[in-house]
Amino acid sequence: MKCPYCSCEESKVIDSRPTDFSERIRRRRECTECGKRFTTYEIIETVPLIVIKKDKSRESFDRQKLFHSLRRACDKRAVSVGDLERMVDEIEQTLHNSMEREVPTERIGALAMEQLKLVDEVSYVRFASVYREFKDLHSFMDELAKLLKEKK
Predict the structure, then answer these.
(1) Where are the domains of the chain?
(2) pLDDT band at residue 152 under the 50/70/90 scheme
(3) Whole-prediction pTM
(4) Are strands 24-31 and 50-52 parallel, antiparallel or unpaired?
């Protein structure tokens, strides 16, 4: 960090504190050259996620949209809002950790199905029926058969 007084590039951190609901860190620094103190702020730089839809159009990732689709799948099921938020957090974290800036909806849907399968199988089947766009009863039954086979 460059000193604002003498432009020396060496400084040491005297004090660090979180600010703004722990979204930033305030650092008090001291220049090793002139001894003057100054304050810097550190924030996490997030890479915006772009979702590639089935029609190849692109839009910004919207965690509320994901939350609502999971909530719809879990309607009238014993899945808490906390569970839904945890699932959305894990999906979003996985997407950010992949370091990909553009993510196809198929990837997000697959991650959502993985989470739902762990929490509630009926919600999983509901979500899969919309996500996979089952064309007939046989494709729906094939998905149920795979689910039952995994349970054994």
Answers:
(1) 11-43, 50-151
(2) low
(3) 0.63
(4) unpaired
